[in-house]
Structures are given as structure tokens and as C-alpha cells.
UniProtKB/TrEMBL annotation:
<feature type="transmembrane region" description="Helical">
    <location>
        <begin position="25"/>
        <end position="47"/>
    </location>
</feature>
<dbReference type="InterPro" id="IPR055348">
    <property type="entry name" value="DctQ"/>
</dbReference>
<keyword id="KW-0812">Transmembrane</keyword>
<keyword id="KW-1003">Cell membrane</keyword>
<comment type="function">
    <text>Part of the tripartite ATP-independent periplasmic (TRAP) transport system.</text>
</comment>
<protein>
    <recommendedName>
        <fullName>TRAP transporter small permease protein</fullName>
    </recommendedName>
</protein>
<keyword id="KW-0997">Cell inner membrane</keyword>
<feature type="transmembrane region" description="Helical">
    <location>
        <begin position="59"/>
        <end position="78"/>
    </location>
</feature>
<keyword id="KW-0472">Membrane</keyword>
<dbReference type="InterPro" id="IPR007387">
    <property type="entry name" value="TRAP_DctQ"/>
</dbReference>
<comment type="subunit">
    <text>The complex comprises the extracytoplasmic solute receptor protein and the two transmembrane proteins.</text>
</comment>
<feature type="transmembrane region" description="Helical">
    <location>
        <begin position="139"/>
        <end position="160"/>
    </location>
</feature>
<comment type="similarity">
    <text>Belongs to the TRAP transporter small permease family.</text>
</comment>
<feature type="transmembrane region" description="Helical">
    <location>
        <begin position="99"/>
        <end position="119"/>
    </location>
</feature>
<keyword id="KW-1133">Transmembrane helix</keyword>
<keyword id="KW-0813">Transport</keyword>
<dbReference type="Pfam" id="PF04290">
    <property type="entry name" value="DctQ"/>
</dbReference>
Length: 174
């Protein structure tokens, strides 16, 4: 096990460290994609204002890119336990009960993400079969939808890992 990096952070086991590393790669990729989208936006705005030559289909590209980039952060947020929580109602509960509630929340997140991953994969397949493309750039719509699936699936796996961790590490400490 590795040493905790912050107060209250639970040490990660080998498979959890591997999931954390993979989620870091996803988050860094999402960050790089966001930076590329900012660059695209700047080029399009400057081109539009100075030379009346915006990037054709910039909004389509920004919509697809930012969706994919945002989804890439989900696994990392899950592994770091940094999703939005309201602890006002649970602060007076015992550590064991809080760990149980955290585990339940992670299982529910895993179920939701697994459902989203499955339905996104089905939608990508159906869009591929239909041959749907974007209006301005003629980009196959199934491609960005399919790019969401790995992030959603990894988030589901990370959530299950966090649920197991809540039930074993934290409850054992109480």
C-alpha cells in the first residue's frame, strides 16, 4: 500500500493505484482536449473578427470536443472522491454508517455510469448504421458518441472500486 497523500485519504491497493493512474491519463487527455478546444475557439474568433474567416463548423467541433473532454474527468474525480457531496446531513453519523452511505452512493454511481456507457455504445452503433453526419463538417456523429464510452465505463469501474474501498478500509478503521 502507498502512503496517504492528504489528511483523511485512504491508501490505495495495487489495483486501485492502477485505476488511479489510468484515470489520470484520461484526465490529462481531457485537459489536453479542452486546451485544443480553447485554441480552436480563439482561432475561429480571431479569424472571424480580423479576416471574416472563422473556422467552418467550429461550434460542432467545440460541442463534440468539450463533451468528450468533460467525460474524461469523471474517472479521476471518482478515484479522488471529489464528486459534489452534501455532508451536512451525515456529519453526525458514525464513521461506519458514513462509509456504508458512501459505498451505496458509489454503487449507484457505478450503475448510472454503466447504464450510460451501455446506452452510449448502443446509440453510437445505431448512428453508425444510420450514417448520420454533422451539418457543417460532415463528421460522423457516432464517433464522438463512441468516444464517451471508455470514460463512462472506466468511471463505473472506479466507482465499484471506491465502494469496495469504503466498505473495507474506512469501516475497518472505525
Amino acid at each position: 500500500m502507498s502512503a496517504p497523500k492528504e489528511a483523511g485519504e485512504v491508501p490505495l491497493l495495487g489495483h486501485s493505484r492502477a485505476l488511479l493512474r489510468l484515470s489520470e491519463v484520461f484526465a490529462l487527455s481531457g485537459g489536453a482536449l479542452f486546451i485544443a478546444m480553447v485554441g480552436l475557439s480563439i482561432v475561429s474568433i480571431v479569424g472571424r473578427k480580423l479576416w471574416s474567416a472563422p473556422v467552418n463548423g467550429d461550434i460542432e467541433l467545440l460541442q463534440m470536443g468539450t463533451g468528450i473532454a468533460a467525460a474524461a474527468f469523471f474517472p479521476y474525480c471518482t478515484m479522488k472522491n471529489e464528486h459534489l457531496r452534501v455532508e451536512f446531513f451525515t456529519e453526525g453519523l458514525s464513521p461506519r454508517l458514513r462509509a456504508g452511505l458512501d459505498a451505496l452512493a458509489n454503487v449507484m454511481l457505478a450503475a448510472a455510469m454503466a447504464l450510460l456507457a451501455w446506452r452510449s455504445a448502443v446509440q453510437a452503433h445505431e448512428l453508425h448504421e444510420a450514417g448520420e453526419v454533422t451539418v457543417m463538417r460532415n463528421i460522423a456523429v457516432w464517433i464522438p458518441v463512441a468516444c464517451l464510452v471508455p470514460s463512462l465505463a472506466l468511471t463505473a469501474i472506479c466507482s465499484l472500486d471506491r465502494a469496495v474501498d469504503c466498505l473495507t478500509s474506512r469501516s475497518a478503521a472505525s
